[in-house]
Specification:
The protein has one domain (4-146). Helices cover 85% and strands 0% of the residues. It has helices at 4-54, 61-76, 79-99, 101-116, 120-146.
Length: 155
């Protein structure tokens, strides 16, 4: 039988690595998606502002000057893009966290089980099992997405 204390340190190291990789994925992927969505939404919003500025309810030089001034202020203002970008970052970080909830949970168990569970043997085996599931999940992604084994041809 394996000494349960020998499992604790490698399991915690694997859990720490899983947590770090999950955090990296959440931040990098969330930021990239937020930037893309912000650009798309800003493009749509700017086109919409410009198109709405083209028509008037009546012909007036003063009205046109005011409309041009207001439109220029809207385009030059950085507050709207900042709010849109902040919203997109929060939404995408939450979305990425939800997508990574299983590795985050397994990492937390691999790291925290020895501190949370009173029975040392059960705690160490729980930590090792969580680390093992993390390694299996990472292996599945590596085999499927990196090596392409079991992947359907997509045209």
């Amino acid at each position: 039988m394996v000494n349960s204390n020998l499992l604790k340190i490698p399991a915690m190291a694997i859990g720490a690595a899983g947590a770090a990789l999950s955090a990296y994925s959440i931040v990098k992927d969330g930021n990239a998606k937020a930037r893309c969505e912000t650009k798309e939404e800003l493009g749509t919003a700017y086109v919409d502002m410009y198109v709405k500025n083209l028509s008037s309810s009546r012909e007036s030089h003063l009205l046109e000057k005011v409309k041009r001034f207001v439109l220029k202020q809207k385009f030059d203002n950085s507050f709207f893009p900042f709010l849109l970008q902040a919203k997109n970052h929060v939404v995408n970080w939450v979305s990425e966290t939800a997508e990574n909830i299983i590795p985050i949970t397994l990492s937390a168990l691999a790291i925290g089980a020895p501190k949370l569970i009173k029975n040392t043997k059960i705690a160490n085996y729980t930590s090792a099992a969580s680390a093992g599931l993390l390694v299996l999940g990472a292996g599945k992604f590596f085999i499927h997405d990196v090596l392409g084994i079991g992947k359907n041809k997509e045209y």
